[in-house]
Amino acid sequence: MDRLHARTGRSLLLAALASAPACGGPAPAADAEAALACADTGPHPTWDDDVQGIFRTYCNACHAADAPDRHGAPADVTFDTPQQALSWASRVRQRTLVDQTMPIGGGVPAEDRHLLAVWLDCPG
Ligand code: HEC
Questions:
Q1: Which atom belonging to ligand 1 lies closest to the Cα atom of 108?
Q2: 94-119 average pLDDT score
Q3: What is the pLDDT of residues 37-59, one digit of tens each?
Q4: In sequence order, what DSSP letters do the residues of 55-99 get, joined into one string?
Q5: Does the CA dihedral 14-16-21-25 come out positive or negative?
């Protein structure tokens, strides 16, 4: 039941985010929406339950610190911990959510991009 409510809340937020201009970053209105959503004490995506799995699935073959073949991913761009991921938040937004050029060629499903978008704004 809680998960269902969480998803409904996310959908509303994402509808708001989706209405932001496609280029040039989020509009101030979207930032305000995100701030409101963060103030909401309801469940939202967490590193342990949602976001770590997204980085492991789509990013860490190249970006884990101990990846056997990083395919040229920069040594300092690692996503093994939430702190590391958040230190790259603006670039993750740009490359994975806006340009969809990370992973190389894109391919992160919309549902996971949505979870990532909410978590980057309201990490938990
Ligand atoms: C197949 C390997 C591979 C995968 C998978 C991959 N990356 Fe990368 N990543 C790279 C390479 C190579 C670079 C350096 C070249 C570049 O920036 O395009 C890079 C650079 C980056 C950078 C730093 C450059 C910048 O634009 O700031 C970020 C941030 C990044 N990746 C995020 C991600 C995220 C988030 C994912 C998963 C959703 C991901 N990457 C998946 C190979 C990968």
A1: 38
A2: 97
A3: 677 666 789 999 999 999 999 99
A4: HHHHTHHHHSTT-S--TT--TT---SSHHHHHHTHHHHIIIIIIS
A5: negative
Q: From ligand 1's centre to the CA of 100, what distance in Å?
A: 10
Total-model pTM: 0.78
- Positive or negative, the Cα torsion across 39, 11, 9, 107? negative
What's the token pair of residue 59? Answer: 């990013």
Angle at 12 between CA 8 and CA 13, to 5 degrees: 115
Q: Domain residue spans in the chain?
A: 2-121
Sign of the alpha-carbon dihedral angle for 35, 25, 55, 108: positive
